[in-house]
Amino acid sequence: MTAAVAPVVPLVRIRGLRKSFGTNLVLSGIDLDVRPGEVTVLLGPSGSGKSTLLRCINHLEKPDAGFVELAGEIVGYRPDGNRLHELHTRAITRQRTRVGMVFQQFNLFPHLSVLDNIVEAPVAVRRVPKKQAVARALELLERVGLAGREDSYPRQMSGGQQQRVAIARALAMEPELMLFDEPTSALDPELVGDVLSVMKDLADTGMTMIVVTHEIGFAREVADTVVFLDGGQIVESGPPARVLAHPRNERARAFLAAVL
Q1: How many Cα atoms occupy the beta-carbon half-sphere of 218 within 13 Å?
Q2: Is the pTM of this model over 0.85?
């Protein structure tokens, strides 16, 4: 008799997530699970809610309704019966240390060297000893293909190099989850490949990732699940081989026909 296999508990669990900006409904009841080690790629037209969804996951935006759970803990709130009470800033900051985020723009501190950009948060927020943080930063720079650039400043680096520094900076916090918000959209085409290669290597190590991108080749090769959003709703979701080749939703078919 074969022993029953316990179901894998999602690392990220989103239920009924709604978000409006004024009268503009951006997210309309999002339900999504991401299991540990999975790569989920979010596709969809501009304004479909992809970036807002990412920002709700780490509470950079506060949901109007619904919730996000990370490893069973509601992000940004403390449950009290049927009500949720917003956490204090310190508790929210603690939760955010579990999530790394890489933005379209690199958001590096221009007045700090590459090394100082990477070690600042582990030392200031996680209280990692400086020597340990520096050693880890040098390892991460080698991992993203930038060994020997620790004393450079952002202005001395290409956009692709800066984005790889931003990835190293996020990884320095030892996150459980990595969020990428169109990480290659601000790059010249010849620089995109180096950043995507780092992301592929990261996925190969088992990092849980949610990626907003228009790089369909990356989605096809790396994603476990492709999620298509339109009008603030998930209208298509499944393995990349099906969603990209045989989308069932008319809006998804039109979008993919335009970008493929």
Answers
A1: 29
A2: yes
